[in-house]
Amino acid sequence: MNAKQWSMASLAALVLLTAGCGKEADTPEAAGSGDKEMKGEIVMWHSFTQGARNDFMKEAADAFMSKHPGVKIKIETFAWPEFYTKWTTGLQSGQVPDVSTALPNHVVEMLDADAIVPLNDVIDKIGRDRFYEAPLKEGTVDGKNYSIPLYSHAQVMWYRKDLLEKAKLPVPKTWDELYETAKALNNPPEVYGLSVPMGLGDMMATRFLNFYVRSAGEALVTKDGKANLTSKAAIDGINYWVKMYKTTSPSGSVNFKVLDQATLYYQGKTAFDFNSGFQIGGVETNSPKLLDQIDAAPIPKINANDPDRGIETSNVPMVVWKNSKHPEIAKAFVESLYEKERYIKFLHSVPAGMLPAMKDIAEDPAFLDNPTIQKFSGAVKVISSAVDQGTAIGMENGPTLESGILANQGVIEKMFQNIVLKNEPVEEAAKKAENELNQLFKLYQ
Amino acid sequence: MNSLRTSFKRWNLTGLLFVLPAVLIVVLLLIYPILSSMYYSFTSKNLIRPHYQWVWLDNFRYVLTNPEFYRAFANSIKWTVLSIVGQLLVGFAAALALNKIPRFSGFFRTLLIIPWAFPAIVIAFTWKWIFNDVYGFLPNLLTQLGITSHNVNLFAEPSLVFGAVLFVNIWFGAPLFMVNILSALKTIPADQYEAAMMDGATPWQSFWAITIRHIRGVIGLLLVLRTIWVFNNFDLLYLMTGGGPSDLTTTLPIFAYKTGWGLKQLGVASAITIILLLFLLVVCMLYFRLLNKWEKEDR
User: Can you list the domains of chain B with their CATH numbers?
Assistant: First the structure.
């Protein structure tokens, strides 16, 4: 065999190999549209790592595949931080799914990367009027809805009824009352008043500061897209959480991330905490005996007679990726998740943790007819009311890239660590962090 | 043209095809990442944005004028030097002790190598748990013994955190030194010690002139390999502290990761890794020069 023949043979082998690596039925024609039967394989990524929700997604995919025998849905599950790394790195090589869950600030970044497609048609088919307006708005740009809200939850204050009763103290309504009550209940190492989390690689300190700043009617990102850490409300908030850390928190909470923080409350080690309705499931799993001793109240205000203000709501949506070879299948699968009976079953997989994104479902007796939702009807009411008024952190003025930077870069967490560990003066640390955030905001423009 | 064809024919084409897979793997896994990092270090490459520009030396200028880079660099040097010295001393002491134990030497060797057998994630979470100031064994013990007035989390104390992570890394890495040094110790002929004793050498002189002389080649190679591994180590430290608190444990690999995956500035992160690569090449050259000198002396 001469050199030319070798080259031809190698080329042919390469072509055959490449062809062999292709997926079956990957051509766009294979995907059905309209009345045609759908055919093809899609990949779904979701972040429902817990048992019940994970099982639900598998069941939903199985049901969809039974109805559409030509369709195969491959499900991959990642926790939120892993999911973020996975899609940001996957985007480079086209290794992203056809359909996935997302967080509101992820959606903004996905839009910036031109990675997802509008879902107006899916929303219209389900019934646009059925959705709450605020969650829809979070993924809307120029009238195009790039995400479809799946469920909502909001941050509220969780407390231990038994500890308050024992100390004969009322549920605090203002930040000052919360400090005094947490201090009174602080009895380490048995129980800490309130843990103040500041761990890098999470947004917990940002979340806590946002509670205070929002309750003063301000936001951490201003209308003109600048960071706000040096206003009076922000400085007061920083001072407040530093004081609380020094008085009622375990010293290790400077490194706490969301799960470290929640676990303390789940195990009865903290008297107060801030979280959504997911707190109920966590306590039920870790310390079932404590379940009767927990309840939720609105996030404190600066003055008791201040107006009710929206604080932090998370509307977890679904998105369909631009790279999808079968967007029709992805969209049809998403639509199937909102069929009434199936959707309620999904919400009941974490009762009171996931609240409906649709108004009619929220009032539906079938949704309300759940033992946990009924047992915690007061807490559900508090969370529902908070859901209506709040937004994602930094999205008070609409979906912006700044909100993602604020939540993901750990600038505020580092600022808090520098104050409590290196004794940096609060104003100086706040100014430095504000400048750093503004520089990062510029970097992304 | 004819001479080119002749020289091409002179190559063993079948042989070349046989080595092709290995060459491809080396190119794909080693050369390609290095070249792509070099290329991206001169661009404004962003992790998720599709378009980027050629920015020449801007990324290097940004990195080399950033105080955080120098803090991370200093932490990397401190982390590497202290870890290696600690691992060498502990590993050496354990190897000498095991070499002298007449019975159950195999049992103790297996016992002492256990830390090395654990994956980084297990080590990180185990020590995080031990140091946890709410549930952790150590802070509670220290408080109960009256050594501390309240539970102290070693990973949250600025003055203690570096020492704590260093301790874990020495605990983890010392067994590798121990096993290799022990193997080298077993190869030293016993008659050399007897001859030295007959000549009136002190134990210290025997140790220095025979033991160290025999095993220094092994130690030298271990130092080269461990320096590269520890300097580049990311998982153990990141899982234990995430570089915190207050960046006190942020080393260069963590700084590069945060820049590339946190800030999504792949171009800048590539520049950091290229600087890291150059530094390690210089360190390795110095090490190998020393090893060559030792080899020449031993001939």
Answer: 67-298 (1.10.3720.10)
